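Hi Y.,

Following your request, here is the sequence exactly as I used it, all 173 residues.
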Amino acid sequence: MNGFALTLLALSLLGALVLVPLGLPGLWVMLGAALTYWVVLPEGGIGAWTMAGAALLVVTAEVLEYTIAGRYTRKYGGSRRASWGAITGGLVGAVVGVPLPLLGSLLGAFIGAFVGAFVGELTVHRDARANPTRVATGALVGRAVAAAAKSGLGVVVASWIMAAAVVGSLASG
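Below is the corresponding structure, written out as tokens. Let me know if you'd prefer a different format.
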């Protein structure tokens, strides 16, 4: 049973990892797979510490995903309003893009961050307003960096969960 369960867990984590760069909830799928494994095999090595640590990393990755775009918007000269526009646009774009198969949420998040930052910067009333296209490009770069960071944290979460399960399997059997 343990070998089959480990294989199923590994396939679930790998499948979930593929979802992460597509803007889909792969990290949450990983937590669900780990929780299921823990419930089915309580002696299987995944315990409260592994679940708590993985959950903390998942929440951190989600927060980073949307704040990095805002930070890059500011780095490229954007206003606070453009930064919030990038964050909001990325969220809205990801949700709107979900119905499109595979890449919809990813493309939606990228386009949403760009448009949100662009519109946000255009609405700033000041003489020395930054170039909205440059600011929006910063938001787009930020979304790419955020996707890479979230994918990297996904690898860490999947590795941690799998290592805990393998060690637990070896210890119990």
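Residues 113 and 153 are 21 Å apart (CA to CA).

Thanks again,
Q.
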